[in-house]
Amino acid sequence: PPTTGTRPTDVSELLPLPAGTILSFMVASLLIELTPGPNMTYLALVSASNGRRVGFATVAGIALGLAIVGAIAAFGVAELIQASRLLYEGLRWAGVLFLLYLAWEGWTAQTEAVSADGEADGRYFARGLFTNLLNPKAAIFYIAVLPTFVDDSRPVLAQTVLLTAIYVAIATVIHAVIVVLAGTLEPFLNDARRERISRRLLSAMLAVVALWFAWSTKR
To answer: Which burial class, exposed, middle or buried, applies to 73 when counting CB atoms under 10 A from its CB (0-12, 13-18, 19+)?
Structure first.
């Protein structure tokens, strides 16, 4: 007689999405995050000027900001922002002005030693957080790109949470690599003149990115 028993469970069946869809989303997220933008430029500025410690604090703030925007999008708030011209423009210009402020601060700042306590960490963490909370392109990603990988026949919330976690993880890894690479320049920039020149160059680049951000997000 035939033996009875349960069929071995395929690992892919335990996931909210097929493995192929997850892999495709990972590739898309990687390509999007490798595109130069405000996060890359600011992380390079912070890490090259002040070292890896505050760079990683900024990365943590960016990760939290992306996660919060993803959670907001999952509950439909991002769609409301996208649908309202007033809300969208307000968020967009707040983000542009904040980036310009960071560029101005980097240009005018004096060379300083980063404090050993958590004061500097908290300050740069907050900057990374607010830079992404005021970034409408992050919201657009969650309401325009991410949903294309969601299968309506499966639990949508579980898929959204998984894809958001994957995107944040990929972005965080790329940002951490930027911090490591830019942080290697800090010893070379210990000379006040070299540090000032590089800081102002990166600040100018951040200002250009802010202007590009204003142009690329207009509707």
So the answer is: buried
